[in-house]
Amino acid sequence: MSKKGKGERTRERILEAAAEEFASRGFYETKTIDILSKVGLTQPALYKHFPNKQSIYCELVDGLHVKFRRLIETARLGIGLTDDDVSAGAKEAVIHVFNLLFENPNVTRIAFFMDQNAENLKLELVKLIQKNIQSEQEMGYIRSDISAEIAAVCLVGMIERLTLEFLLPGKKSPESLADDVFGIFAPAMINKGSEPNPIDIIKHLE
Amino acid sequence: MSKKGKGERTRERILEAAAEEFASRGFYETKTIDILSKVGLTQPALYKHFPNKQSIYCELVDGLHVKFRRLIETARLGIGLTDDDVSAGAKEAVIHVFNLLFENPNVTRIAFFMDQNAENLKLELVKLIQKNIQSEQEMGYIRSDISAEIAAVCLVGMIERLTLEFLLPGKKSPESLADDVFGIFAPAMINKGSEPNPIDIIKHLE
Amino acid sequence: MSKKGKGERTRERILEAAAEEFASRGFYETKTIDILSKVGLTQPALYKHFPNKQSIYCELVDGLHVKFRRLIETARLGIGLTDDDVSAGAKEAVIHVFNLLFENPNVTRIAFFMDQNAENLKLELVKLIQKNIQSEQEMGYIRSDISAEIAAVCLVGMIERLTLEFLLPGKKSPESLADDVFGIFAPAMINKGSEPNPIDIIKHLE
Amino acid sequence: MSKKGKGERTRERILEAAAEEFASRGFYETKTIDILSKVGLTQPALYKHFPNKQSIYCELVDGLHVKFRRLIETARLGIGLTDDDVSAGAKEAVIHVFNLLFENPNVTRIAFFMDQNAENLKLELVKLIQKNIQSEQEMGYIRSDISAEIAAVCLVGMIERLTLEFLLPGKKSPESLADDVFGIFAPAMINKGSEPNPIDIIKHLE
DNA sequence: TATGAATGAGGTTTCATTCAT
DNA sequence: GATGAATGAAACCTCATTCAT
């Protein structure tokens, strides 16, 4: 009666168990038998569903990486909004990031923190944020005396560590963490005492 | 002339090669033979100097962890200075951290970024910073509407990522990075729009 | 209308597919699933019809081996004929052999060329031929300066290789190959330059 | 003191044991542990010397195949001799073949009788012999009413079976077997009653 | 001090084979 | 009669690690 065949469900149970094991022990210390005994299966069952241990790992990692890249892409396309939307949109984007990372904490641990390739992912995120910051700097909304790259890198660093210490353990919600991040990041970026760059204002009025 | 015997030198060459390999491939993908062929030795030589592969890894990791904890301890003891010292001291402390992380990039990669235990280390750093922030919040020097813990976590996150992207690749110096960090973190913490706490002002004027 | 039930037909399709696979890949490189996918069945179906993989192989091999031994037995009983019959009968026998080997080329490949037990079969054939040759040698019809055993072995060798190179690929018919074999073997056996044994001549004139 | 290092000798002992096992059980029924227990070693020792089980097999097979092809090549270059040399040379060549096959009976069993690729080898031998026969047919030395190809195939068939039944078990020497082969093959080929073709004679006198 | 040669131990993987439906 | 899903068993291979020199 169930839409999914038993095989499909088994496959998913393997993936889930693998995620738990990989997240807590790492790839190498996770033995296939650890995964299987968790699911209550024996070795050949695993190889009915996956060609090898590595492929389970990859499926988990790639899954998140794809979603993550898609999120970045979506955010990139959303660039170029009006005033309030800009900062509101930024926070919204960060919430999306936290949401995604919170979807499956085990997978996030693996794909976003343990996997070597995660660095590339973070670099892409940095690039996206950097571009946004630069736009806003050109518009004079935020300080221009700070390197957009440095700022972006810092923002990503904050997101990372907040994810590890508050999001994954379930201590804080994505929204709340986004507030926290911008509670620090926004004030740091604000064009405080200095007059806004007149040219930027003109640009903005057009 | 050299104080160190040949054996001691060999031991160090092994450690160094191991650091390179561990840093680039990780513990499990680094085979003892990879390390040895890099040094031009054969397997038994390794076991003359170390009880096993794990011990090489531990020696590298523990070395940095000890130094790191010592740094934190020193910083902790240095708490409770006068105003200028406070922020100057904070930046100084961050420089020390960057300096330590820059001492041996390979080891840093291993002990500070790959090793599971690094989380504890970072947690200790967070605690230290959190305490400092709390002190300053109590003194009214900085915003009190931000959780000291969150702020500390964010600061550590920034340090981490800046280390990975600028310090380890040699793109920026410890001092410059400390400037960058405080260029963002300090303004974010400043008690701006709100009326400053009168008591704090008095303190500050002294 | 068909005498055979569906099960029986399935059984035969399995045998046939197995013969193809065994013949082209050998026993070990043929996986049960290869056979089954060829027939469009799944694994349990196989075990409804055969106790195991080996038994399929045996059934194929034994089938030919039994037929072959029966052929040899028939030939053995037919020994002791008059002159013309002798050589004519010999060629007839070889045609029978080729016919049998041509009946199912795949099975022949397996049972006559790949199976270790085939050696015994060939040995039996050698023994039979050797006896025939000896009889004829005693009768003086053919050279006595050649070991009957050697001659028999050679004849079997020819049959084997001709089978592989011409019969199984369908390049030559059993009859034509029998002609070829005797085109070489008969002249080789003939009592040519030497004076024929007078006694033999007398026998021959009868 | 010995020229060969211990490792090299071990390698050879493995090869030798493998040849025995492969020859008697076949590739798949030979477990690496069978080979190793014969040599008194454990698994890793094998993999110090060979990348895998297959490579041991290949080294054995390729070794003989190369020698065999070299032999054929040498024979090919030796074509085109005078009268007596022709048949003498042919026998000589067959002796070389038998000698090679006798050098290492186990390897011969594997590379010349069990290995699938052996068929190609035999085909090459057939081609060589066929050419020689054709030359002699053109010169009128031997019967032209027999297909050179058929004759060559038969000759190879004889060699094969004689090898299996007499050479490998050590029942007959290469020379003796060559005599046997030509005792049958030469008379079969001889241009008995018929006058030699005049044109061929002229050709031969040139 | 360093090495050539060997090992113990254990993991991944691959089959043929079966159970419950 | 046939199947989806699972298993038992065993082979290959790869390590870190050690022995004897």
UniProtKB/TrEMBL annotation, chains A, B, C, D:
UniProt keyword list: DNA-binding, Plasmid
InterPro entries, alphabetized: Homeodomain-like_sf, HTH-type_Tx_Regulator, HTH_TetR, Tet_transcr_reg_TetR-rel_C_sf
Keyword DNA-binding listed: yes
Keyword DNA-binding: yes
Residue range(s) of DNA binding per entry: 31-50
Residue ranges constituting the HTH tetR-type domain according to the UniProt record: 8-68
Name of the featured protein: TetR/AcrR family transcriptional regulator
